[in-house]
Amino acid sequence: MPKFSEPQLIAGNVLTMDPDRPRAEAIAVAAGRLLAVGTLAEVAAALPPGTPVHTPGGAAIIPGLIDSHLHMQWAGLKLLHLLGEPAGDEALPLERALAALDAEQPHWQGPDPTLEQRLTGLRMVQPVLHALGIVAVVDPAVVPAELAAYVEAHRRGELTVRVVAMPHPDLDHGAAAAIAQLDGIGARTGLGDEMLRLGGVKVYFDGVGKDGSALRREPWPGHEDEAGGRGHQRVSEAEFEALAAWCARERWSLGVHVVGGGGIDAVLAAFARIDAETPIRELGFTLIHAYLEPSPANMELAGALGVLVAAQPAIHWWNGTNLEARIGPAARAANPIRSWLQAGVAVGGGSDGPYFPLDPRLGLWQARTRVVRDEEAPHEPGLGLDAEQALALYTTGAAAVSLAAERRGALAPGLAADWAALSVDPLSDAAALREAAVVETAVGGTVVHSNPIGDPA
Ligand SMILES: [Zn+2]
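^ thats the input. predicted complex w/ zinc ion below
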């Protein structure tokens, strides 16, 4: 695999996702970053004479894709658990890897995984992600053993996917205990480097959509007379607000798992009270999932506070039919990414893999079509994104949710030289994009996946 520590010119049909220059003929790479983006002549002029030209081929070169919600270590362990340790250096066929990752099977069984098992899992899963054009992830709930494995993988030079790790403190013993855990060594969001960095603190506010435990404003149908009929609130408002306020004061970012409208109301109300004391706009506080009945008022408030949303088209695809059976036609408006965007909220795309399918081609297609599993008619297709918005979800939007918008997500001078070359133009037909092959993926100018024929995977 070529390693482009030397200056290099990459030529092709470049979709930059940089509004200042949406299209280009070439990019110049030096020391892992983009030096210039523009016409062939402009880019060549920025490089020493005789700089080699590399043409990945395919129909388009796009910024490397980012999954802003992927439990990468669990994905690796699931591959190890279901497929066993690979014998040699042979790459895992993509279809086989995806079938294992999507299998409705436990991610892991038996004693807690050892460090070496975690590292093996990472060695197995990262090439799969690169074969899908993925260059970076947010791992959205990292316990100490997981962070230790990421640190060790990085030390060994085995981390090829950029990781933003969100520490997940235990809130079962209250905010004060969680704060004591987090405050132990004075680390903060942002500590790390371009391959491994601490993201925001991750906490869970409510349950999930698929079993009726997300916190709604009204009871779940059939549970009207039950205490807790609106769903499961995993932490009291007071404990949640105490932790969130501490995060704001201490400049920790915060990502909150919150699915239902009742939960979203409570989390945003707490954020608004905190913001009056300690402005949160620069901190990248994020609603994670937020797909079930977010209201126009929620969207307006999130926009005003600078709160981000991490959205997962794969969850909508997976759960759409089941949700409709539980709550009726209101379910068809689930995951209204377009409405969040219209309210001025930055939205990052992701998968919640391996709990849901992690293939970004499925996510890009679903965000545009709003097709759900086992149903022919899409759910409120008017809420679907256009092709460019969908691509932004997995590039600039996911970079924002990664708190890395200044460093990656677009092909623009100064940003990381992370790209993917695809066999189809991602701004064309959504169905064709779902079948696209990733011809090449590069992280920091180093090619980490190459399939020059562009064989459909
Ligand atoms: Zn998750």
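Residues 196 and 448 are 17 Å apart (CA to CA).
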